[in-house]
Amino acid sequence: MVLIRIGGVSGLPRRPPVSAALSWRRRGRPQDARDPSFVVLDIVKIFGRMADWQACGDAISCGASEFVPLSEVGKPKKWEQLFGGGKGIRANEMDEAHFKATLSKLPFSWPHTVNTGQMPDRGLVPVPVAPREFVKVVRQLEGTKSDGVASAGGNVALKDVNQCVGEMAIDEDAIQCVFESMLQATGSASLTREGIGKVIQQWAPADGLVDWYTFVYFLTRAPEDGLSPYND
Length: 232
What we know:
Structural class: alpha+beta
Order of helices and strands: EHHEEEHEEHEHHEHEHH
Number of helices: 9
Mean pLDDT: 76
Number of strands: 9
Number of domains: 1
Distance between the termini: 26 Å
Shape: globular
Largest sheet: 3 strands, antiparallel
Helix content: 25-40%
Radius of gyration: 18 Å
């Protein structure tokens, strides 16, 4: 069991050199003008259902990446579970309605990045992405056991966080944003397995690993609560 202790948090991930707040301007295309109704936590809920643990932390990857650990080669990816078939939908293709219906059924685990160099003699240390949002959830769970009885210890297990967030609804606007962002990269009317593979190679051509920061960078819309919680 992994226990989470809050207070004097150290080893938070470094802010990326180019923040997501500047990403649209740096890419030379405007952000989608529609007003978003979703928040950062909604993006965490989505990424945490699509990403697998890799050497760089949790990332969306395909079998073509040379950076996927040997122990993971050949194993089905979490995002591949989206293509489970369905009425009127081929197992290799999905539209937005199928994406929405299937995504919420996938298991959730809070995604992590890795902290390197800030904690001497510790090597790679997994750190939750969007740590402010992570701490908020832990605070909500602190002092309460799964049976609702107050706990004197106040320790919260990572599995408790995963269960809590996994049971939360995902804003449909956030799902639409992610779907449209991937669809825009493929130039197709629907998403296929091969299409998502192309998205991965387009978003992460160097290593084929779409980590949290890369995923956020290519979203066409910012969340309602701003961009700073992505990176803090």
